[in-house]
Amino acid sequence: MEEIQRPDPGFKSALLAEISQLRFFALSLTGHHDRADDLVQETLIKAWAAQHRFTPGSSLRAWLFTIMRNTFYSDYRKLRREVQDRDGDSAARLFANPEQNGHLDLDDLKIALAKLPEDQRVAVLLVGASGLSYEEAAQICGCALGTIKSRVNRARQKLMAHLAIESAAEFGGEFLAIAGSGGSASGEAA
């Protein structure tokens, strides 16, 4: 069992005697009175908790200044990684679609794809899901370019009807980024 050490009664007095010097040093580091006071308080708390590490006879002020400097640098490194957002504008611009809707939408898409005639399903999967060009899809399916374009367009129209989608504006997330960059949102007619 670890023995509990009692605080040194002289340690408290010595800490209190250094507060004015600590405030001066903290103000020189932070440049702001309120932040300096917080830094002094944090330094005193850390020093009190670690008083068993202080070597009697050495400079208490130097030890406290070292604690303060290290605390200041640690806080500074943390602040550099944080985004200042007092009015909440940055947080308001952050948005992520809930993941569970994506799973449900995918299930609905699978059901709608299964209702398509096989030639249309293959065509839309080759062009839409696999990212092949119409020419490549036509070659794979062994049909004319116009035929594959027609199949893809009809498949997209039927999928939109099965999924109760009236326009590309009803899609979100990545679809809008693709549609906005020149990708086809509603299908290409033959």
TrEMBL record:
Residues 112-159 form the RNA polymerase sigma factor 70 region 4 type domain. It comes from the Bacteria. It holds the Pfam family Sigma70_r4_2. PROSITE patterns: SIGMA70_ECF. Keywords: DNA-binding, Sigma factor, Transcription, Transcription regulation. Residues 21-81 form the RNA polymerase sigma-70 region domain. Transmembrane segments: none annotated. GO terms for biological process: DNA-templated transcription initiation. GO terms for molecular function: DNA binding; sigma factor activity. Belongs to the sigma-70 factor family. ECF subfamily. This is RNA polymerase sigma factor.
